[in-house]
Amino acid sequence: LPAQLEESSVPTEQSPEEQDGAQDGAQDSPGKPLDLQGCRVLVMDSDVKTQLQVSQLLKSWHAEVLLADDLEEAIETLDDSGPVDILMIDPMLSGEACVTIKGIKAHNKSPIMLIGIASAEHGQDLTACEGFESDNIIEKPVAPYLLRDLLRTYR
Q1: pLDDT, tens digit, for every residue of 53-62?
Q2: Staple partner for 53: which of 10, 72, 131, 152, CB 3.0–4.6 Å?
Q3: Which of 86, 65, 73 is nearest to 136 (CA)?
């Protein structure tokens, strides 16, 4: 990411509980942080603000984050860095979201959790894809507590 983006802050939506106690959305519940240590996440989204917001959250939970703007960059990233545990993808990144997901899953060569990050009108585009369930889709902007709750099922 460009240096100026790394220094900026992206506002995030928090649940009422988080507004009362947690500073960065990284708390699962009081005293119990979400720990994704050793988890590798590939975030595929062409929107830099979404990449920044999601990567900051994931890093605060100790995940290793890889970013890609498109399928070609995602394949290059997997070739260079090895397989990932979680794929977060915007269905509008590709006209063929299911084909893109199938290609990444085949290239990854290990089981992968799929999470859609989409605008309200495009979230259901992913439910037709093999391995995607409607409850694995989060609307933009990503609410930290919703992402945390979904990732809790991974760990």
Answers
A1: 999 999 999 9
A2: 10
A3: 86
**What is the residue-wise DSSP string for 29-79?**
ETTEE---TT-EEEEE-S-HHHHHHHHHHHHHTT-EEEEESSHHHHHHHHH
Q: At how many degrees (to 10) do helices 144-152 and 48-60 cross? A: 50
More confident of the two residues 115 and 122: 115
Instruction: Tell me the C-alpha distance between 78 and 132, whole Å.
Output: 21
Rounded distance, CA 47 to CA 28, Å? 27
State if pTM tops 0.85: no
